[in-house]
Amino acid sequence: MKKFYCSLSLLICLSTTILYAQAKKPVAKKPAAGGLSASVAAGKKVYTLYCLTCHQADGGGVPNMNPPLINTTYVLGDKNKIIQIVLKGFNENVEINGDTYTNVMPAQVSLTDQEVADVLTYVRNSFTNKASAISAAEVKKVRATLK
Amino acid sequence: MKKKQLLTSFLPMIVTAVILLVAPKIRSDFYKAMDSSQDNTGLKLPSGFSANIIAETGALPRHIAVAPNGLIYLKSNITKRKPGNAILVYKMGADGKAVRVSGFGNYIGTGIYIKSGYLYASSNTEVFRYKLNAAYEVIDTAKAEKIITSLKMGPQHETKSLVLDNSGNIYVNIGAYSNSCQVKDREKGSLGQPGCPILDSAGGIWMFKADKLNQTYKDGVRYTTGLRNVVGLDWNTELNQLFVMQHGRDQLHDIFPDMYTTKESALLPAECMYALKKGDNAGWPYIYYDEFQHKKILAPEYGGDKKKEGDKSIIDPVVAFPGHLAPNGLLFYTGNQFPERYKNGAFIAFHGSWNRAPEPQAGTFVVFQPFKNGKPFGEWEIFADNFSGSPEKTASGRPDHKPCGLAQGADGSLYVTDDLKGTIYRISYKK
What ipTM does this complex have? Predict the structure, then answer.
């Protein structure tokens, strides 16, 4: 029993630390003035303007055409890869959960580093997604490699 | 006399009551028959019509062909999530349900049509045909004759819808692998490529011989050009003419946000029905049809300003439907089951919009456009609605079902496929 409580408190302690760290992370990286929630809010505006037509308000995409942004490695995986997709566009067939999506995604070159960071942070933390924030510095770094 | 009349008028009821009460076996059969003719779909139809789900295929059926003896051929899409056969064969049972009898082929695609003893079907780059026996069954499913090959397929508008005329020709849609022929497809502000090079081998309808093997572009004729993408098409036997439904261009606002509001972009351009003659040009990518101004407006990619009109030689649509509804099936009704006003009129299956976002989505219904003497007669009307399940599901772009293909049964029933859940509907009329 004692052991149980011990591991339980350890678990609580650990998860609190993780939660704290997760909440703290974006603040530490300063993706936007008000942390994760501010970046998400700013990102939602960018999403509505530049992404929503194809990927839809719920991030579910359009069957056979525009891929969903929900629970896929494209969105939740390698940050550099997704930053690159936004900056360079995407012109390959994508297979997600057994379905293929073929529409072209145009490059979003006119977006600033901060806008790209915000919209990706929004996408990575919406539609049931949960992933770390992306900072303007990270976008800047990827953009430099594309030039 | 009066008493006798009364008795006569009640007689059918009395007989029915006796049957129902006395014979439970007959009664259960009776109810089964009743159920199969009653609406179990949730669809909204004009009075006198009823719909039936005849099959839940579990596949992704696109277009459909129904043989004169009732045998049903479905051209199904194939994905990793939904593996299976390209062509599915269903046979109607006595209970009003269709049963799968076979399946063959391994190519994705949309087109399927029965003509002169052959079943025609397309992949996204080729057209095949299979010889049928007297019972409209494919004699040898392993023996697909390749009629047309090496057609262009882009990263969008890949499907090759097809239809045949009565003179041994086959018409194939080759969709433009682009939205509006911009230098950078779908990119904000990018202008149109001068002399859109896509049109040499796509963005139109090509005509080939129905019985010649291994035809390529050089064997075919570019029958009409300037059609961005056609999924629904039919041969109008009354006029002996090809009719098509074009999927109009997307994203006027996304590409030219200073010129078009999101609302204008949701409504424009119209989804057009064209009656085609050889050599016609429907105008893509240089124009789009504005159903409010009733004009062919020069595309902003080619110097348009929402008002300037395009080349006068470009043909007008026969009917202009609301923007982005995605017409995927077209059928001219030639049956005798439906009331007289439906004869020679057009049914159109609208798959439902996505490009209206952030405005509410629309469509996912089957529309009827009345025709008289070969011309549209009066306004189009929604014929079958609520495939989506609710107005909210339509508006959100997350419908339960998406209508795609249409076919007419020998008895005059209308068949509708759904390529989202794989449901097959049959709509009938009873006075």
Answer: 0.82
